[in-house]
Amino acid sequence: MRLLFDQNLSRRLVPALAEEFADSEHLTNVGLDTATDREIWDYAGEHDFVIVSKDSDFRQLAFLLGPPPKAVWLRLGNASTADVLATLRAHSEVIREFAASADESLLVLPAADDL
């Protein structure tokens, strides 16, 4: 499974999570740095990505349109890249299960220290 990191997340997440989530990308790496949320949603669906964002707009698209694609909403507030990385690693199995499910379109993740 591949993650597509939204503009509000660091590009450094891609190489940092290469072992856990191979072939993941950041929006800027695929030419979507100025795309609308709907364009990102459509791209992710066409290219088999799970969108990861701190933006609630993808939550709304997940409810309105359903999968594919799927979205992971990080409820972290103003968190550092290290905090985002820790949260994604702490929830990596949950993310995999979510991606494999047929019907779910949104996964909401708290900070890793909120477990």
What number of domains? 1
**Helix and strand composition category:** alpha/beta
- The tally of strands reads 5
Radius of gyration from CA coordinates: 13 Å
Which regions are unreliable across 5 or more consecutive residues at pLDDT < 50? none
Mind describing the biggest β-sheet?
5 strands, parallel
- Integer average pLDDT: 92
Helix content: 25-40%
How many H/I helices?
5
Order of helices and strands: EHEHEHEHHE
Residue share in β-strands: 15-25%
State the end-to-end distance. 24 Å
Which overall shape is indicated by the principal axes computed on the Cα atoms?
globular
Quick summary:
The chain is α/β, with parallel strands linked by helices. It has helices at 13-16, 37-46, 57-65, 81-90, 92-100; strands at residues 2-5, 25-26, 49-53, 70-74, 106-109.
Mind explaining what this structure looks like?
The chain contains five helices and five strands. The protein has a five-stranded parallel beta sheet, sandwiched between helices. Helices cover 37% and strands 17% of the residues. The chain has one domain. It is α/β, with parallel strands linked by helices and 115 residues long.
Give the tags.
alpha/beta; 5 helices; single chain; 17% strand; 37% helix; 5 strands; 115 residues
SSE layout:
Elements: E1 2-5, H1 13-16, E2 25-26, H2 37-46, E3 49-53, H3 57-65, E4 70-74, H4 81-90, H5 92-100, E5 106-109
Parallel strand pairs: 1-2, 1-3, 3-4, 4-5
